[in-house]
Amino acid sequence: EMAWMLRGMENLMVDFYLNEEVAHAICEMLMDLRVKQAEKFVRLGVDILRLGDDIATQRGLMFSKDIYRKYLKERTRKIISTARKINPDVLVFMHSDGKVEDIIEDFVDIGVDILNPVQPECNDLRKIFEKYGDRLSFWGGIGTQSTMPFGKPEDVKTKVKEVQEILGKNGGLLIAPTHILEPEVPWENVLAFVEVAKASKYEK
């Protein structure tokens, strides 16, 4: 995300294909910065290293897997491996909105432990859990484009329980809305979410 903020989204996408030297230079510079930040955070004792790049729309990846692997994957791996050299037990959280099903295997490969936000409007939560539930924990799962703004309090409670049953079978779920709650979310729905989440118990 920082790369396209610096370069402009359209320019960066063109760079990936036509100006590879520029794209690599930008990504390398940002990786160096993130490596230094990771070192500092882990030495200070953080429990979770939070990384994030929205690399997908709600229809699928913004670019091919080959582009992800060419410019981003190994650089992200270096950030993670640097942190783990200092503390092998630090957990790695990866945020990407959108339909990320096709890239999760790459996240697991580079050492991601926690996937966020597992957006239900565009991902098959059951499919993701069946394939990755023994290798990932999940953070999110409650739609901020669907249940939270447009459901009734009972709908919220039902959805929270449903997502807990799908993604929390092994206890590896931090139930949460998938993004910031916008002003149109009724306060009653927020209270309903908190009520059912606080009362939850996960079965192993």
Structure description:
There is one protein chain. With 204 residues, the chain is α/β, with parallel strands linked by helices. The chain is globular. The mean pLDDT is 95. It has a five-stranded parallel beta sheet with strand order 1-2-3-4-5. The chain has nine helices and five strands, in the order αααβαβαβαβααβα.
Helix/strand class: alpha/beta
Q: What order do the strands of the largest sheet run in, or round the barrel if closed?
A: 1-2-3-4-5
Proportion in helices: 40-55%
Distance between the termini: 37 Å
How much of the residues is beta strand, in percent? Answer: 5-15%
Give the low-pLDDT segments.
Answer: none
Gross morphology is globular
Count the helices. How many? 9
Mean pLDDT: 95
Short précis:
With 204 residues, the protein is an alpha/beta fold. The protein has helices spanning 2-7, 9-18, 20-43, 65-86, 104-110, 125-132, 147-150, 153-167, 187-198; strands spanning 48-52, 91-95, 114-116, 137-142, 173-177.
Keywords:
alpha/beta; globular; 204 residues; five-stranded parallel β-sheet; 9 helices
SSE blueprint and pairings:
Layout: H1 2-7, H2 9-18, H3 20-43, E1 48-52, H4 65-86, E2 91-95, H5 104-110, E3 114-116, H6 125-132, E4 137-142, H7 147-150, H8 153-167, E5 173-177, H9 187-198
Parallel strand pairs: 1-2, 2-3, 3-4, 4-5
Helix pairs in contact: 2-3, 3-4, 8-9
